[in-house]
C-alpha cells in the first residue's frame, strides 16, 4: 500500500484546480497566481510521471532523444501483476485522477475562452498539455505501446465499419436487382 503516493497523486492536481478557481479571491496579483498554479501543475506532472505511476499501477514512460536527434517515447509496464504492487483502490484513484483532471482543464479552457479572460488562456493550455501528456503516456503503457494501440484502434474501426459495409452491400444488391428488373 502506498498512501503517501496516493495522497500526492491527488494533492497537486486538486491544489492546482482549487487555486485556479479561487486565486482571484485571495490575491490581486495575476503573476503570483499564474506562477503558483504553474508550479503545482509542474509538481503534479513530475510526481505522476516519475513516482505515483510506478508505485500505484506499475507503469512508467519517458522520452528519449537518440543520436540522430529523433524523439522516441519509451513505455514500460511491470511484468508482475499490478495488484501485487498496489491495491485495487489505489489503481482506481490513479486512473480516475489521470482521466478526470484533463477533462476539468478542458472545461476551464472553454470557460476562459468564452468569458474572454485571455490572460488565463496560456495557463489553461499548459494545464491541458501537462495533464494530457501524462494521460497519453500511461494509456500507451497500459495498452503496451504504439503497436498495441494501433491494433486496438484498427480493430475498433474495422468492427465499426462492418455494419456500414454490410449496409452498403445490401443497398448495392437491392439497386442492382431493382436495376435489372427495370431494364427488362
Automatic annotation (TrEMBL):
InterPro entries cross-referenced by the UniProt entry: TVP23-like
Subcellular location: Membrane
The protein's name in its UniProt record: Golgi apparatus membrane protein TVP23 homolog
Positions of transmembrane segments: 26-46, 93-114, 120-139
Alphabetical UniProt keywords: Membrane, Transmembrane, Transmembrane helix
Topological category with respect to the lipid bilayer: Multi-pass membrane protein
Gene Ontology BP annotations: protein secretion; vesicle-mediated transport
Any one of the GO CC terms: Golgi membrane
Family: Belongs to the TVP23 family.
Top-level taxon in the UniProt lineage: Eukaryota
Organism: Fregata magnificens
Keyword Protein biosynthesis appears in the UniProt entry: no
